[in-house]
Amino acid sequence: MVRGDTKGNSIMIGDHTQGLDFIHNVTIDQHVMRRNRQFDLIPVIKDRPDLLGLGIDEGTAVVVQQNTFEVLGASYVGIYDAKQIASSAQYPSGQNSTGGPFYYLGKGQKFDLQTRTVLSRAPQRPNEPAK
Fold first, then answer.
1. Phi, psi of 90 (to 5 degrees)
2. 16 with 4: CB under 8 angstroms?
3. Mean pLDDT across 101-121
4. How far apart, in Å, do the first and last CA atoms of the chain sit?
5. What is the per-residue pLDDT for 53?
6. Quick count: other Cβ atoms within 10 Å of Cβ 42?
7. For 44-78, how does the pLDDT look when each residue is reduced to its tens digit (9 = 90+)?
8. What is the pTM of this model?
9. CA quadruple 25, 121, 72, 85: dihedral positive or negative?
10. What whole-number distance in Å separates Cα of residue 104 and Cα of residue 94?
């Protein structure tokens, strides 16, 4: 988890770089939207493009089973992948957007950690036009 330095939580890559070994090749930041930290993982992933960044907001979690996770909770999980950051490709998670350095997954969406692909699109919102 980034912000794990013993000197304070403003240091992005500090003296704790290995977690509990439940998930591999991933770095996690917390309280992402609540504390306006949406862009904080970008330099971390640029420095370590082998890692997948997960920005998990408050009231939200991922449940990991083998190489897949599902988003649970009230908010969102940001996905920060070096390929997405470099290309600003169209969001693969179902949002209507032209792209950007990260994208969000919401409740019920699944993600393949091995292939780094979204497995289920966002459910259509009632006020969103059909595609």
1. -60, 140
2. yes
3. 92
4. 37
5. 94
6. 15
7. 899 899 999 999 999 999 999 999 999 999 999 99
8. 0.76
9. positive
10. 9
In degrees, to the nearest 5, what angle opens at C-alpha 82 toward C-alphas 42 and 78? Answer: 55
Residue 120: CB atoms within 10 A of its CB come to 14
Contact 11, 5 (CB under 8 A): yes
Half-sphere exposure of 125 (CA within 13 A, CB side): 7
In 3D space, the residue among 52, 25, 53 whose CA is nearest the CA of residue 37 turns out to be 53
| DSSP secondary structure, the chain, as one string | --S--TT-TT-SS-S-----SSSSSEEEEESTTTTT-TTTHHHHHHH-TTSEEEEEPTTEEEEEETTEEEEEESS-EEEE-HHHHHH-PPPTTS--SS--S-EEE-TT-EEETTTTEESSPPPPPTTSPP-
Q: 49 in the Ramachandran plot: left (φ > 0), alpha (ψ -120 to 50) or beta?
A: alpha
Q: Which residue has the tokens 């693969």?
A: 92
- Report the 10 Å Cβ neighbour count for 4: 17
